[in-house]
Write a structure and sequence with these properties.
CATH architecture of chain A: Sandwich
CATH class of chain A: Mainly Beta
CATH class of chain B: Alpha Beta
Shape of chain A: elongated
Radius of gyration of chain A: 20 Å
Oligomer: heterodimer
Order of helices and strands of chain B: HEEEEHEHEHEEH
Shape of chain B: globular
Order of helices and strands of chain A: HEEEEEEEEEEEE
Structural class of chain B: alpha/beta
CATH topology of chain A: Immunoglobulin-like
Distance between the termini of chain A: 63 Å
Largest sheet of chain B: 6 strands, mixed
Helix content of chain B: 40-55%
Chain lengths: ~160, ~180
């Protein structure tokens, strides 16, 4: 009895922590992005892998209607200069609430950003940060637009 | 032997249907009166700046709809609610729309005009959402009886026929 009590207490704490934990965001970065090797003066591509909760979709970067909020990745000024973001080809999907198919992303997908490493960049480990704006729905309801902070580790080399 | 088995099967189906009716948004299912809770009071501004209070509608059946202009399922429902307002307003029924758009009237007012919304549209915020159960998703629609109690909450888009049936049931029950 005395041996099992600490185990039960630990289990209760673990379960309590699980219960208290926030539900995971509908859209999240899949895994930990590896450090980006960036040579001074060169251009590099960084992939941001994203995963959506099953049953949900986000509006693509080119939604079918003006009122829908597009997925948008922007990078803050930092050690690398963002030249442009490439979004995957959207899926055209029909939902119970829409008369026409909608341009969306669902499941796992990647956003690719091309960066230039300025000549004045300082060699060494660093990070680039940005914001991902998105709006998610499922077949019956929508979640409010969200802005998620994103961060990519960078290793700047000569 | 066969008859008890039939009764058990019938009972199981009845229990399943009773629960399914509460879970399926397309199925009309009002809460029994003793289980209904009072709809929290609020006072919000409309596009002209006039204050609208939920208690102003006491004695009427109210469809209270939380929506946003960026929400496609919400936009699907709004023409139905406009139709219900027109069809049932003379029987003691009103629709109230509460928009949860970050940019407020800048986006809500033009849409309300384009969609020819014929009922009061108000602007809501986090406080109101918390007061009404803290749902994170839209649309959320409440059917409120003449005594100001919530008879049904729909989270997510429901079927037009389910809303209509619930409105009719509330109008019938409360007259």
């Amino acid at each position: 009895m005395t041996k099992t009590t600490p185990k039960l207490a630990a289990l209760a704490i673990a379960l309590g922590s699980l219960a208290a934990a926030q539900p995971p965001a509908v859209l999240s970065v899949a895994g930990t992005p590896p450090s980006l090797q960036a040579k001074i003066g060169a251009t590099v591509e960084a992939k941001l892998p994203l995963q959506l909760r099953p049953g949900y979709h986000v509006q693509s970067n080119t939604p079918t209607d003006k009122y829908l909020i597009p997925l948008r990745l922007t990078w803050n000024p930092g050690p690398l200069e963002a030249l442009g973001v490439t979004y995957p080809k959207p899926k055209m999907e029909k939902y119970a609430f829409s008369e026409m198919p909608q341009s969306v992303f669902s499941g796992n997908f990647e956003l690719t950003t091309k960066f230039r490493v300025p000549e004045a960049a300082i060699a060494g480990p660093s990070a680039i940060t940005g914001k991902l704006r998105y709006q998610a729905c499922n077949d019956a309801m929508c979640l409010p637009p969200r802005t998620m902070d994103v961060k990519l580790p960078v290793d700047i080399v000569r | 032997m066969k008859q008890p088995a039939l009764w058990i099967a019938a009972g199981a189906i009845a229990v399943y249907l009773a629960f399914a009716s509460f879970e399926e948004p397309d199925r009309p299912a009002l809460k029994p009166e003793p289980e209904r809770k009072p709809s929290p009071e609020f006072a919000l501004k409309d596009a002209r700046g006039a204050t609208v209070r939920l208690s102003d509608y006491r004695g009427q059946v109210v469809l209270l709809n939380f929506w946003a202009s960026w929400c496609a399922p919400c936009r699907q429902e709004i023409p139905w609610f406009t139709e219900f307002e027109r069809e049932f307003k003379d029987r003691g029924f009103s629709v109230l729309g509460v928009a949860f758009d970050e940019r407020g009237w800048t986006t809500v007012a033009p849409y309300a005009q384009r969609a020819r919304i014929n009922y009061p549209v108000l602007l809501g915020g986090d406080d109101l959402m918390t007061l009404y159960g803290g749902q994170d998703a839209l649309p959320v629609t409440f059917l409120i009886d003449r005594s100001g109690r919530i008879a049904r909450m729909h989270v997510g888009a429901a079927g037009k026929s389910a809303y209509r049936q619930e409105i009719l049931d509330l109008l019938k029950a409360d007259t």
